Amino acid sequence: MLKQCRAVLERELFYMWRDKSLRHILLIGPLLGLLLFAGVYSYQRIGNIPTGIVDLDNSSASRQVVEELKNSQNLQVAAYFDSFAQLKESIKRGEVIVGVVIPDNFGKNVALHRQTRVAVVIDGMNMAYATNASSAILTVTRTFGAQVGIQTLIAQGIQANQAQEAYQSIAFPEEAWFNPTLNYAYFTVLGFALNVWQQCLTLAACMTIIGENGLRSWLQIKTSGISSAVLFFCKSLVHIAVFMLIVFPLYYLAFVVFKLPLACGWLNLLSFTLIFIIALHSLGTMMSSISRNAVDASRYGMIIALPAFVISGYTWPLEAMPQWVQHAAWFLPQTWFFQGLNYLTFKNPGWGFMSHYYLALGLMAVLFYSVAALRLMVENFLPKGGLM
Amino acid sequence: MKQILNIAYYEMMHILKERVLFLMIFFVPLLYASLFGLVYVSGILQHVPLGIVDLDHSKESRDVVSAFENTPDFKVIPEVTTYAALEKGMKTGLIRAGVVIPEDYSQKLSQHQLTQILTIYDGSNLIYGFNTRKYFQQVLNTFSADHTAAYLSGLGMTKHEITNVMDTVSYSMEIWYNPTLSYATFIYMGLALMIFQQIGLLGIGLTATREKERNTWIQFLSAAVSPWKIFLGKALPYYIANFFNYGLVMWVAVRFVNVKIEGSVALIVLLGLLFDIIVVSAGFVVSVYVPNSLLVTRYLMLISVPIFVSSGYSWPSTHIPKIINELVRLMPYTWMAEGFRLLTVKNLGFSYLVDKIIVLIVMAAISLFFALTFSKRRKPPAQTGLAVNGSISYPDKSCLRL
């Protein structure tokens, strides 16, 4: 029995290595993905949002507004325009994202404490820009509004400390937890790379059964007396071990070289990855068992693997999806994995919380492997016009 | 012409007979469009779960709580009342944001001392993070203005005087092109165009490999039919089906997902036709030169995520290193997605899209050239290595039937 197992293990490892396309996909795909995504997000933050100014007043007060904008953390004054039409054209062309129009007589009105209005326009086409720009503008308007208000009150004879208190008696400090610098690379790089990784694994897992019973050698295997259970158990063992080995360099690059956050320990992360690999492999195996050939198995597997990341709520939150979609999403192992990964890498909420994730992935693995085994048994007992 | 139509008819029969291929071409685009539509249908992130730790329990602190309760952007979670609960709630995802009002809040206000309200948000998901930060600023700007107005009123100023002081400089902020900052308008069509590309490539990508696997490709190669006729005949059904899917996906986007699609219909059609030519001809070339359907499926499935992420559609290309930008400019998707967005979201005219259209025309011409002039010399199947990588075969249960 042990000898038989060893032979199957060696054979499977050899077969996986000889499958050149699969070998390339597994060895190169995830690493290339990680390097590419790390490159894409190497700027890490959306800063220096190009801002265009139309200063129709050119007074010291209007220049003070421009200074405030220049001092803003995320805005970069990139162009000055003579008219609103020029600003509009520049926003259309995507040269500036934020436009600020300071009206005629702005300084005079401020000095005379008459009302005046500064118009701010934000290009909402790209949300990464738009949400950051909105926040930056809201901060500037509050700060500048307070400064002008204080000056106005003092000019009206209110004592300086009272004027200041009216505007600045409450401070609103903000803290971003788990990712204090709001670093996009922390948020996205590992998620996207593991998305490519899980797609590669799915392609490999989809070969588990069809890679045997779709070949003529299947007849020899059946007549050799080795049980299907032993055969597929040993095959799965090799697949899972290989999948696990592939993730090591990925994690090394992500956490050691690129220094992405890892709130939990390595053991937690690796054990969670292992249970996900088992669940994903079981899903691929199930797809493999119900397919007529390897192409269909890959298609079925990838039909789930391709949209799984979007549905998992890793980027657009699950809570913002309709209720029943949220429930349906939890039927996919990828949802448990990507949600769990986010918790483990950023928050480490502890075993009591994460145990549900382990349990769900474990149950899925049992379910999917059972369906695959059942399907294989039925096929063996009820041959359809074939020799099996 | 008759030869082309005959080949097209034969290809159509294949599509209709092969159930999985039929479903992939006519059902999967709708399935994915609906799936992503459901994911992004709400478009705007609202009701961010918020925990408020009010350590003061005064009238003044309740005003702060009310400010957050009266906005649809937040949903106050009543279970969170202590800092420890807030920490735990943030860790377990029960809440995504928190407000801490210190115990001496009202006392300091009454003593005219500086006090503070701490705002906390979850940076582990930046869609939550950035939206929550914006919502905090909106609420606090309003709250701050109300507080200032109340203070000035306490100094004996009239309502008119207060308005005059506070509105000395006011700001009007307008968001153009996507005024509600809807994520559906932002991301949905980018994903939909990726579906269009992938399903288009996978459909025609199997057209020649299928023939090779059935040993019928040799008939095409040896017949007195020019390569360009074989390509046109084979590509015609896919070209029409893809264009149908292009329209279908847009219909789903506008009708059910409330995605903003404006702009010239002629330009939308032109972009679709050009992109369709590129997808169909590139898919055909892949199919001719790759030995079997399994390899086509494996490789084509994996390109979607890297292309989408690096295309500059979600993360702006101004913040992507130059070398990656140059590489992704070789991808038709980059030009198509950007052109489509400028057209449909910004409602720009031809003059703004001319560079995108020219690049797509050049790409279409190049891919068409290779598809129309493919070599009819057949590469013999590899004699070494695993069959799946070099030969026309791959694991298939039908090989066991007698």
From TrEMBL, chain A:
One of the record's GO cellular component terms: plasma membrane
Entry keyword set: Cell membrane, Membrane, Transmembrane, Transmembrane helix
Membrane-topology descriptor: Multi-pass membrane protein
Keyword Iron: no
Top-level taxon: Bacteria
Signal peptide (from-to): none
Pfam families in the cross-refs: ABC2_membrane_3
Molecular-function GO terms, alphabetical: ABC-type transporter activity
TM segment ranges: 21-43, 184-210, 230-254, 260-280, 300-318, 357-378
Principal cellular location given in the protein's record: membrane
UniProt domain ABC-2 type transporter transmembrane: residue ranges: 25-373
Subcellular location: Cell membrane
PANTHER family for this protein: MEMBRANE COMPONENT OF ABC TRANSPORTER YHHJ-RELATED, MULTIDRUG ABC TRANSPORTER PERMEASE YBHS-RELATED
Name used for this protein in its record: Inner membrane transport permease YbhR
Organism field: Desulfosporosinus acididurans
Automatic annotation (TrEMBL), chain B:
Record's bilayer topology term: Multi-pass membrane protein
An example Gene Ontology molecular-function term: ABC-type transporter activity
Taxonomic classification: Bacteria, Bacillati, Bacillota, Clostridia, Eubacteriales
Recorded superkingdom: Bacteria
UniProt cross-references to PANTHER family, sorted A to Z: MEMBRANE COMPONENT OF ABC TRANSPORTER YHHJ-RELATED, MULTIDRUG ABC TRANSPORTER PERMEASE YBHS-RELATED
Keyword annotations of the record: Cell membrane, Membrane, Transmembrane, Transmembrane helix, Transport
Pfam families: ABC2_membrane_3
Assigned protein family: Belongs to the ABC-2 integral membrane protein family.
Gene name tied to this protein: ybhR_2
Protein name in UniProt: Inner membrane transport permease YbhR
